[in-house]
Amino acid sequence: MDSLIVSSSPHVYSKDTTVRIMRDVVLALLPAAAVAVYFFGVRAALIMAISVLSAVITEAVVQKLMKKPITVNDWSAAVTGLMLAFNLPPTVPLWLPVVGSIVAIALVKQAFGGLGHNFMNPALAARAILLAAWPVYMTTWAEPIHGIVNSAADAVSSATPLAILKGLEGTEAQLPPLWAIILGSTKGCLGETSDLALLLGAAYLLWRRVINWRIPFSFIGTVALLTWVLGPRGLFTGNAIYHIFSGGLILGAFFMATDYSSSPVTPKGQIIMGIGCGVITTIIRLYGGYPEGVTYSILLMNVATPLIDRFTMPRIYGEVRADV
After folding, report:
1. What is the pLDDT of residues 237-246, one digit of tens each?
2. Can you give the pTM of this predicted structure?
C-alpha cells in the first residue's frame, strides 16, 4: 500500500513526469538529427549513437558504483548524450564523444547528486572541456556532403559563417546565402546548423509547455539588438539576422539554456538569464578571440542562477518583512 503523505498547502498536481519531459525533448531534437545525417552522412548518425550509448552506460555504471537506483530509463542520460553530439563537429574522432559523455555524466551530473542537482548544463560543460583539451578536433569544420552514404571526415575543412562575420577567415562576400544557413547546408556542429529543424522542435516544446518563451526569446532578442547596434562599421551596421541563425544560438537558446536544474525558476529571473546570455554571447562574438560565445554564456549564467533566484523570488503572500 502506498504511503499517505500529509503536508501543508498549497497542493499542486501535474501530469508532467521526467520521462514525459525527456521524451518530448528527444522528439523535438529528431528533426535536427535527421538533417545532420542528411548533410553530414552516416558518420553523423554514428557519432550521435556513440554519444548517447556512452552517456547511458556511464550513468548506469556510476549509479551502480555509488549504490544508487539505476535510472537510465528516465531518458535524461540519453538527452545529455544527444545534446553533446549536437555540439560536436562531424569530423571528430569517434572516441571523443565517449570522453565527452563520461565527463558530462560522471563529473558534471552524478558527482553533484544526479538529475536535478547539476549546477550547469552537463552537455555544454563537456563541450567546453573538450574544446579546451582538443581544440583542433573541436574546431575542424567540414562542408556538407548531401548524402548519408558519404563520410564527412573526408570533407574539406573551411570557415564557418561566424568566423567570416568576425573577420577571422574570409570576407563577408563569402558568406553563404541566408536560406542555406537556415536549412542547415553550411559548416558547423552536427545539431546546430539547421535552424529550421531546431525551430520546428522548439515549437513542439513550447506547444507541450516543456519550455516557456522567456529565456529563448530574451536571449535571441538581446543578441539581435546588440549585434545590430554594435556593428563592425559603426553603430547600427551589424548583421543581426546572420548572427541569429549562425552558430549555436538557436540550439543554445531553446534547448540548452532552458535546462530546468541550471536555470532560474522565477519568471523575472528567466528573463535576466536570457538577457545575460545574450550580452555575454555578443561580447565574445564581437570582441573575444573565439567566434562563438553561446556555450560560455550559458555556463556563466548557470553559475549565477542561485544568485538570480535569490533576488527575484517573489514575496510569500502574508509574509511580514523582518525589519517592520
Report:
1. 888 999 999 9
2. 0.89
